[in-house]
Design a protein that fits this description.
alpha/beta, Rossmann fold
Amino acid sequence: MVKTMESRVLNVLFLCTGNSARSILAEAVMNDLSVGRGKFRGYSAGSHPKGTVNPFTLELLQRSHISIQGLRSKSWDEFAKADSPPLDFVLTVCDQAAGETCPYWPGQPVTAHWGMPDPAAAEGTDEQKRRAFADTLMALRRRIELFASLPFNKLDRLALQKSLSEIGKK
């Protein structure tokens, strides 16, 4: 399994409840060429999607020169269908989605929880909200860069699971 992972683009699904902020940020960062390096394809979804991407999410990504093309709030059901992209990794980025019963993911991807505070729940001025989104983006970028640097050709499934869980604690 690990050898074939190393030789193809790996699909990573980021989950959150609303799919409007954290999971969208993670998808965009994973697909950013400076992070994913063409080795990964990021996706995002939510258990109860809001239907729209938070405007602070889009503003921050544009300000950070990260593409927003194709980003949309969608249900995780889209990725449980037979014709969905085969998932290699499923990462929850909010506490609520981690406790929910997930659909069956074709291909039995490696899963981990990377919980973090919801920037969309931040209160205060628009600048304080922007800071919450920026902090979330920075934390996700750090975790995704650690993920992208893992030696996939040297790790078995259990070691990958453990490494991903450890990254979620950083």
